[in-house]
## 1
Amino acid sequence: MNVLGIETSCDETAVAVYAAPRLLSSVVASQTNLHAKFGGVVPELSARAHIERLPAVTAEALAGAGCGFGDLGAVAVTVRPGLLSALLCGLSYARGLSMSLGVPLVPVDHVKAHVAAAFLREGNDRPLSAEEMPALALVASGGHTLLIKLSGPLSFELLGTTRDDAVGEAFDKVGQLLGLPFPGGPAVEKAAEGGDPEAFRFPVGKIRGAPLDFSFSGLKTSVLYTLHKIPPAKRRARRADLAASFQSAAIRALTGRAILAVRETGIAKVVLCGGVAANRSLRRAMAAALSAEGADLFVPPMQYCTDSAAQIALMGSALLESGATAGPDLDASTTSELFE
Ligand code: KG4
Ligand code: ZN
């Protein structure tokens, strides 16, 4: 059964076709250039671009999969969480397709789909499988930083979350402080390559009484104060050290919580996913920390860590099998099901 996946929760217009157990195509049209001059995603621009691009991106995904609209068995779409106006573009388009083709409409939670990316086989040395359950998942994205217990492919329990900024948001804000281009995450990673991660000792935020929760706003503020103490003429020269030291603290926060979660739950399998999981230093550090702990790491291939519709179509396919379809009154929401 071919499942069409549609993703428009933020600034990527993405469509994919999945037929279990294989991904047949995945097309992502990034809006980065559109938002770069504003230093962040502008919701109105994002929604307009989704509407303009969805038909062509869908046609490309269908062509890549070697099929047409008539070969689709279901349409899966991200309905939460994200920018409401952006989500509604994908949802309206998906609803129209589902009604005109007479196939089921499957609502997908974007954050859960980030975890589901670990099940994708394409380009993945060690894909996750249902037999590996229970497992833990660390979602590190621009909107979320979550620790989750997975009892099965569709069974999620929230163990910890950030109390303020998400880790990707911290990367983006530090990128801005350092005068790097948008989005900050990949730019900070690149700038950090030539820097000394020990040059500055930035703090890792901890929440009293909630050891699996995260806090990144103190880290961001600490980078700001440190930057202001450096004379303006010398800031550029210290940029690589600042980026490397910030990245090192963010990585310590993520690896530290993952290890703690393994110890607290006795579950020695961890999925690392979400846009920040595309960071090579984080991938290496997490692999080393978990290996020393005797735990296994599952990381989706780079292109399925950041937003794509591949994970939406895969998750939609699994949900369809479980009967989780929706009627035409389906609505979008800004928060994940994980918080309900
Ligand atoms: O998962 P994602 O594509 O979108 C959300 O669901 O939020 O994550 C986007 C976030 C952004 O904050 C971006 O800067 C960050 O992931 N990111 C990275 C890297 N690539 C993307 N952060 C650090 N290093 C990277 N290589
Ligand atoms: Zn995402």
## 2
Amino acid sequence: MINYKEKIADLIAPQVEGLEREEILGMIELPADSSMGDYAFPCFKLAKILRKAPPMIAKGIAEAIADDPMFEKVEQVNAYVNMFISKADFAGQVVTEVVTKDQNFGKSDMGQNRPVIVEYSSPNIAKPFHIGHIRSTVIGASIAKIYDYLGFDVIRINHLGDYGTQFGKMIVAYRHWGNEQDVIDSPIKTLLSYYTKFHVEAENDPSLEDEARATFTKLENGEKEETELWQWFRDESLKEFSRVYDMLGISYDSYAGESFYSDKMPRFVKELEEKGLMEEDEGAHIVRLDDYGLTPALITKSDGSTLYITRDIAAAVYRKETYDFYKNIYVVASQQNLHFQQWIQILELMGYEWARDCVHVPFGLVSLEDGTMSTREGRVVFLEDVLNGAVDKTREIIKEKNPDATPEAVEEVAKAVGIGAVVFNELSNYRIKDYVFSWDHVLNFEGETGPYVQYTHARACSVLRKAGDDIVAKAKAGFDPSYLTSESAHALSTLLYQLPDVIVEAGEKYEPSIVTRHIVDIAQAFNKFYHDEHILVDNEDEKLAKIAMVLAAKAAIRNGLDILCMKAPEKM
Ligand code: ARG
């Protein structure tokens, strides 16, 4: 995108001897008050070099550069050169760039294909995939998209919670009370009921706990029958998760979850030992982290079995060795802050100099109106139900509005808009904020919502259809930007101009909501432009310029929705 500061520095540099272009670039200011121009150049510093009064210098520079077409006017006010950018020149530069880049608008090569891992979703198998998981899933998917746009080579990982002593319990429960058909029919509900039953029964019969421990040891040792049962539980759970991922249009490069690291851990236990970082504590092994203000981390239990944190240490090293990542990003709830601080600190103590390239991106808690979610007490809202509910509601609205639409068209739009509404809602707030899940809120399509933005995109598409292919092709080939200087056109050009920087900022802050908000702003500015101006006017030159603007707005909104992992239907 055109960089005005650079262009201004190029113009001023020949006017001031004794000052490097780079220095001039650093001196250009953005006035807080727009009556002072879009850019200003202060001349105080030059007085010494040029042996002239600053206002005199400013006057000389202003006169020398005023004729450049990029300016509407250039003024000298005291020691300042105040520059007003030509709205026509600006709109011409911006709209041409967006229309030319089209699908690539907003992308950059900043990342230079360096590998970035984004780990997200990572649910626990045989446990409900509930509304709490939507956060990691959707925020992570969007961060991955942002890094795609920034030119990194993104590796998407689902670190499934598919290992641990609970699988000993599940296998024991299945053997005592289980039924194959029930698991096939409704895997997660059934497996969860086994897990719950196990805890109830174990209250009266503590020998069940011993049986579960022994069974988990067999699983750790890779014994056939236990491994097969575990594998089956995992496959059935994954089928359920995949239904939701398909609805969301999310995919992964790797499902290497906790179990994947089960045989990779002894190396690290040994390494911690050799580096003198581990100590024994009643048969268990811990790493003390008092010096860093953290509680001790438990590496192995007294029965020798490894823990969640040990698997994370193994996973990080494996990822470095396998992908040589530039960054390894974990989108995981803020409840796990301590866990991440601990293991990243441990990696650093072990001497892995890339430890701080592992970044925990936390997010706040989702609770329900009647309190926090509780799987045991049945207080849980399934993510799949939320997505289906949103699609159902959208289907009704669309049928009402378009009674003639074919069932296939209704279904396609209902999915895009219903699921999009949930995703957009999720990506609208700062990730770290806690929130209370409410059906009313998710299914409310009024105001600055996903459906509003998608509708704006469809409206732009409809204007282009009305204009016809011929006019659209001509507008793409060139237009007279002097028709794009109204207040509403200028506001829209300004927002389009900012989008690439907004994406960079969102990436640096791991904060998709920055993009969400900007896309809402673009949609609003487009709607204002659409209402304030006649687009399909008789004067062809004027029409071409305005159609180019519509093309640009459409491309920006579509790419923005793409970053939020949402579809952009052309008709609604
Ligand atoms: N499975 C875990 C949970 O549901 C989240 C895993 C987070 N990722 C990690 N590398 N520890 O709480």
## 3
Amino acid sequence: MSIIVQKFGGTSVATTEKILSAAKKAIKAQQEGHQVVMVVSAMGKNTDVLVSLAHELMDRPPAREMDMLLSTGEQVSVALTAMAIMSLGHKAVSLTGAQIGIRTDNVFGKARIISISTDRMQKLLDDGNIVIAAGFQGIDEEFNITTLGRGGSDTTAVSLAAVLGASCEIYTDVDGVYTADPRVVSTARKVTHTSYDEMLEMASLGAGVMHSRSIEFAKKFNVPVHVRSSQEDTTGTIISTVSEDPTRGVSGAAVTMDEARITLSGVPDKPGTSNAIFSAIARANITVDMIVQDAGVGGISNISFTVPSAELAPTLEAVQPIAEQLGIQNITSRDNVSKISVVGIGMAEQSGVSDRMFRALSDKSINIHMITTSQIKISVLVDRDQALEAINAVHQTFELDATSSDAVPAESPQATPAADPAAAANKLQGMEELAITDIALDSTQASISIHGVPDTPGIAATIFETVAQENIIVDMIIQSYLDDSEFASLSFTVQREDHQRTLDVLQDMQSEVSFQEVASNPAVAKLSVSGIGLRSHTGVAIRMFQSLAEAGMNIEMINTSEVRVNVVVDDSQGDSGLKALTQAFEDVMGRQVNI
Ligand code: ASP
Ligand code: MG
């Protein structure tokens, strides 16, 4: 019999009346012939209330006690939900995380799931019960209660669906996933489908309808997720391997308002520097967002990266001593910047996406401080006071408000066919471990760096439009920025056969855009590590930098995204780089993943 996991967030179980309406949804699904597991969050803002109670007593409550406290929110909801179902004349049993057998590690406050046992749930389901599982919690080896981090009930729901071979419905106060946050872009539109990768990139961009980790999970175990309204009976958005319209270059846009940028200039362009810098930041438990390193000139390069504004001070503290050791000349920072990103799985197959984005911004006289592109995402950093104008301009330029004729019609997600017992047992092992799906070497590219580019609106648009007009396909684009200077540096990669042609095009542009110098490397190697959990396992980029440093390799360019980290090295080092990375990720490579 097919199983459905239905998750109800805090607002959807905020009152007993709402709990009753959630109960009715579950009963309806059961009457339609499914076995039903409900996952519920704490009622309304109860978790916040518990957090503030703790802080009335202590500034820094111990993490173990905090988890003990916070888990009670969900315990209230599961019991009430079971009662609601019973009051409607149906059978229900509520279970805490421990009772289900959700085993986690012992990192209180952000525990990872290690395994889930399905026996008890399956037996209760077979006896005709609706099973109500407490979201967000588990138990460690020593029977301590743990929680999965704020918003963690989504992760509970998706992981239960994964082990039960079920489909997953997330009932929430929005009716689906939008092309942009409707509070920020009034013309944003609900999409019928979005892919795991798009959703992952979007979730981390702050467009978070769902907890990022739950999407990583869904992708890893191929669980289709239907995000829909708990108020209305409408179809929402299906998150699976399918995008709404894969022929479209861009399917969504997002803004992260509170970013801070740090630039290290005059960085010695030699092996080990990125490793030293980013390891120091990681040791301070700070998650770096965009990382941009451009190809250096004269033995020095610049590294820029962003962190959440609130983390600027501790980041600078962590970086300063390392910078001194490395003889870095200058550290500058700004905390009034925002990140605008566009995402689309169709982007990888299309040219002319980035220059359209740059042009839309330049038409509004918005200056771009930093650029980084990945396979399916382009991000730029702009002044915060222009961020809202910027996201609206970009949303409009890609006509995200209009449905296209190639859109995939919405239909109910297909439940994964019941997994065979051996595969299911396999899934229980190390559920949330990092999974590297691919380590790749691309030896087809050349790199171009333009130094001394005037730092004014429209330059990136003009350069990349001109390059696109010549049918030159640009892959990675990186722009870094130097404070105290009116200039930026722009680096990008093209196919090797286009190297000379690109240089010629740039030469011809000299009259239009005056830049100081063009440097290039006719043969570079791009090394990429792709996988699931790159974001929640912050060590990935560092492990990569470290293994390349140990192999004595100099990194020319870096850029990062949620699902992939790319570095560019000289072509002569491609093979040994690939070998070093394969070794470095041996332990997490080739897990049983479904993509
Ligand atoms: N109640 C928890 C929280 O608010 C978990 C959740 O809602 O997903 O963070
Ligand atoms: Mg919540």
## 4
Amino acid sequence: MAGAGISTPSGIPDFRSPGSGLYSNLEQYDIPYPEAIFELGYFFVNPKPFFMLAKELYPGNYRPNSAHYFLRLLHDKGLLLRLYTQNIDGLERVAGIPPDRLVEAHGTFATATCTVCQRNFPGEDFRGDVMGDRIPRCPVCTGVVKPDIVFFGEQLPQRFLLHLTDFPMADLLFVIGTSLEVEPFASLAGAVRSSVPRVLINRELVGPFAWQQRHNDVAQLGDVVGGVEKLVELLGWNEEMQTLIQKEKEKLDAKDK
Ligand code: OAD
Ligand code: ZN
């Protein structure tokens, strides 16, 4: 299970960290209160703040870091049953984790839906609009097109429910870079069997690690990159990890040219 804390080392602010988190830095977006940026009611009146944020997070602006590549390495080794992420920056995909291994619980910019006729489009179709500060419009009915990001009160994607059965099947759970403040995502930490070790890699204790620790819970407190690197070292995967990161860096460099 992952959250915004795995992407702060890539330069993307999280939501709730005091001072640096997005929710304490919303003056530039000119919204009445922080959560308005993800509220449908507000979006229909004024979609501009959301699209300012979308412009910032649109795929292509940021690169994955060791935390993403650690998860990719788990996948390469056939050890990743599923990655449940709350992140909407798409960096899991950029890191090469295939979409079928991913549950993007709070949605994605990879696709977008017309708020009027409900037609679905590739997110790429609207890159030009978003980057050019234009509100994307449906080519069929001219309704406002909203990237498939889950707003407060909206249903989570089908895939969220489809893969819930992963939790009782898992034999290890990593919880990385999330405050576990948002439901229903947060409760999934309690959905693994009680015999299953849960490993938290985060700046502070969160959710059940703070208030209902199990005897086999482990917490590696501090920076996610440091925590992941320590784990990689203990696993003896250092060299593989470096090779993977170097290879992926070259790929991204070539793409940027
Ligand atoms: P939060 O901002 O709530 O929590 C991020 C967590 O990661 C906090 O516990 C931070 O201390 C920790 N953290 C940040 N950077 C770190 C670093 N470099 N090393 C270690 N720990 C670090 O973000 P989420 O839990 O992802 O919804 O927030 C959940 C949801 O709330 C988001 O998906 C978003 C928001 O409303 C939508 O986008 C729809
Ligand atoms: Zn339409």
